[in-house]
Design brief:
The protein is an alpha/beta fold. It has one domain: TIM Barrel (Alpha-Beta Barrel), CATH 3.20.20. It is globular. Helices cover 49% and strands 12% of the residues. The chain has a 5-stranded parallel β-sheet.
């Protein structure tokens, strides 16, 4: 079987057109403005059918579609819900048009938690979507905020996977000359988000949530000893959890976007092949980068069983409503 790409983005046309209109009223951070201008001009937005052939040549048989930054977290409730429903409906339509080629992750307006629960139930119950994508912060609020716990309770009841995707840092500098937002800030956004969720007791209270982290878990594999030190040395880090953070981290899934074989080996040693899943960040990661990701996995010298697990079996085990 060909690979399943857990980290793959498309902006549906109606979502994109609406986002452009919103950008006339809402001042987005510089990294979002670059997506709207710079990346769009680089051919980021292609029709779904235009991606199938090129990615199949790279060994990818199924794309798991999700929204990237800015997702649906807008200042107004109606605006946020409309964007979520546009994207979710469009993704399901893509999946129906191309059977066996796409899985789809739902976006929800988590900045308005009651609406998020309703859209979650529609996306999973009515549309049979395959999981959820959440930004690493929700309009600047951390994912560990107690106001989001009713949403996590529903996710826990449904035993759903959540894919975390980096968002603009809450205090993004305006002059990002060297593209440090996607290169550096995003990695630590995911790291900070999931670490605070662990310390806040999200996974203690809601153990059925399945967490998928992008970019090889950010800095989690390399900092978990230091994070465990917080549990040992600081009482506030123990008040909501009953075991070391690393025990929760071991239960998460980590995509293979690293382009760094030693880093892949580190994650492989910490969480094992059962908790790595193939990802590319296409089309933000162009075809050349996908080739490098494939080559980095080749360099690990995995057994056929472990490689099959990383490339497709692990993600099939945890996605909801799969074929």
């Amino acid at each position: 079987m060909m690979k399943i790409d857990i980290h793959n983005h498309q902006y549906p046309e109606n979502y994109w057109e609406t986002l452009l209109k919103i950008s006339e009223r809402v001042t987005f951070p510089i990294d979002v403005r670059r997506i709207i201008s710079y990346y769009a001009n680089k051919g980021l937005f292609v029709k779904p059918e235009e991606t199938i052939g090129p990615l199949e040549k790279l060994g990818i048989g199924i794309q798991v579609l999700s929204l990237s930054n800015p997702n649906v977290y807008m200042p107004e409730a109606t605006m946020s819900l409309d964007l979520a429903q546009m994207a979710n409906d469009a993704y399901v339509e893509i999946r129906q048009r191309f059977p066996g080629k796409f899985y789809v992750l739902a976006s929800v307006p988590l900045n308005f938690p009651e609406l998020a629960v309703k859209e979650l139930d529609r996306a999973i119950g009515k549309l049979s979507m395959n999981g959820i994508v959440l930004g690493s912060n929700i309009a600047g609020k951390p994912l560990s905020s107690p106001e989001f716990f009713p949403f996590y309770e529903r996710v826990n009841e449904l035993k759903l996977p959540i894919f975390i995707h980096p968002m603009s840092p809450p205090h993004m500098e305006e002059n990002d000359e060297f593209f440090t937002a996607p290169l550096i800030h995003y990695i630590f956004e995911s790291t900070l988000a999931v670490t605070k969720m662990v310390f806040a007791g999200v996974f203690e209270r809601f153990p059925n949530i399945i967490m998928i982290l992008p970019h090889l878990g950010g800095a989690i594999p390399y900092l978990q000893g230091r994070i465990d030190g917080g549990y040992r040395n600081h009482p506030p880090c123990r008040k909501n959890i009953s075991k070391k953070p690393s025990e929760y981290f071991k239960e998460f899934y980590y995509d293979t976007i690293s382009l760094n074989v030693p880093a892949l080996r580190c994650a492989l040693e910490i969480v094992g092949p059962e908790h790595l899943v193939f990802g590319t960040d296409y089309p933000f990661q162009p075809s050349e980068g996908v080739v490098l990701i494939n080559e980095s996995i080749d360099a690990l010298g995995l057994s056929a069983k472990d490689r099959e697990g990383i490339e497709y079996r692990n993600i099939l085990r945890i996605l909801h409503n799969t074929y």
